[in-house]
Design brief:
By secondary structure, this protein is mainly alpha-helical. It contains three helices and no strands. It has one domain. The protein starts with a helix and ends with a helix.
């Protein structure tokens, strides 16, 4: 459980840095995502989740 909370904290930290460093880029990205159809977003989410699982699997052995 502590690993999950650490990962969640890291996610928030990285997202916060991105939003603080590039606020206009983040707005453009969000606007683009809102205009995209559900299919490509779903595929991007699945690929992202799989890449994350592979990274965790490789790191944790």
């Amino acid at each position: 459980m502590s690993d999950f909370l650490a990962a969640l904290g890291l996610l928030f930290a990285i997202e916060g840095i991105f939003l603080a460093a590039f606020p206009s880029g983040a707005k453009r990205t969000m606007a683009t995502v809102l205009e995209m159809p559900d299919g490509p977003l779903r595929i991007a989410g699945i690929v992202s989740a799989l890449v994350g699982l592979v990274i965790v699997w490789l790191v944790r052995g």
